[in-house]
Please model this.
Amino acid sequence: MGLLDGKVAVVTGSGRGLGRAEALLFASEGAKVVINDLGGGADGAGAAATPADEVVAEIKKMGGQAVANYDSVSTWKGGENIIKTAVDAFGKIDILVNNAGILRDRMVFNMSEEEWDIIQKVHLYGHFFCTRHAAAFFRQQRSGRIINTSSQAGLGNMGQANYSAAKEGIVGFTRTVAMDMAKYGVTCNCIRPLAATRLTLSPELKAAMEKKAAEAGGGLGLDVEGEMKKLAPEHIAPLVVYLATDAAANINGKTFFVGGGEIGLYSEPAIISSIFKDGFWKVKELVDLMPKSLTKGFWPAPAPK
Model:
């Protein structure tokens, strides 16, 4: 008996990386799984059926049930087809994991309109399109689980203005979907995972880690193999599967860190200090008061280089 026997899960972007690890664990807990993957490159270019088909084959080999879907999450019709695949194949949908993603990193002063747009389409629009179509079924059946995939990059990361904006948008999206769907027995939570995948571990970064380890010598430096094990996608999957179970019915609208054996709950944003005045502030008053109150202790602005 698995924790998810009889449940149907859709995992987007599950042909590789985090999604694959999540899909395999869902199947091992008894869920029937839709393996959605466009099969494109890390930058979103191209398409191939192989990644999704290979995960379906893995699940069937272990005795589970799975079907493949190759639609892009970045279109309304694609999101609709992904959810329809679950209903057509298994008669319903109980769980949606929004995981599909790509990267188009660039410093903001060099970023193109296309590089901005495609990241919003895949990440932010992709979460909406799939959630919108799944939510209609969840509302009817008065149950459902949605797990979204944000990122620590949403808190700010150089060269990722497009990605950071989309990922932090997903956090706000999660909170509101949680409110919209709570009365229908549906929960919506999100994770900020830390894992080594083809998106996060570029060949350049891995080469730099190996170089640092080699320069240290004698095993005193960075243990590349050990670090990779700590960042394995398999560390992420258990929390995602847990959030999809009946045991997590009381968790809604929350954001979790997960990676390398650690699971953490993020605090919700709150005002940490305030100043008050009866009436309108004058700019000159703020020039005088802000450095003595709200912004006291802030570092001086760096000199331009």
